[in-house]
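Translate sequence into structure tokens.
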Amino acid sequence: MKLKSLSSYFALLFLSFWVIGFVFFALYSFSLKYTKPQKADAIVVLTGSADRINTAFQLLQDNKAEKLFISGVNSKVSIGALFQKIDENMVNRIHLGYKADNTYENAMETNLWLQQNNISSILLVTSFYHMPRSIFEIKERIKNVEIIPYPVFPKQLNTNWLHTRSAWLLFEEYNKFIIVSIRSFLRRLFL
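Result follows.
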């Protein structure tokens, strides 16, 4: 009987920590705002929605950085397919990464590109709910680069985090963030 109540206690404790963590994660994700980004060496955008790429391209047009790196591009997609009307000067400032299929691989691909291009600061463009994990994954691999978050709030997504679709995205992303954090902790512990 005592073992059952002890396991119930730990389950309740775990659930309480998870819920509190989720609330903080959601509040942090929605609090990320950037109206006038500072200039950086490069803009890095992680693919996932057209809103992300369009936002990053607008930042490049506004000269918030000299280069734009798009990580996680489908191998069949070219710059011309992404941007219909683009001048030659802009084409030379855009670099596509074709090797990433997930956030972990985005971080690896971005790290390699940053090293090859001597970049010391980036504007990181991704969806607001994806930003905490993206920053974490990139910081795990890149130590000497300033990361300036530029969160995108997709137009089709309700910015009320209690809205069903928003809550589900945050729920999924929070659980992925926990898994990534545990993986990082275990890697440090055993390596």
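Note: Helices lie at 2-31, 50-61, 79-82, 88-91, 103-116, 131-141, 164-190.
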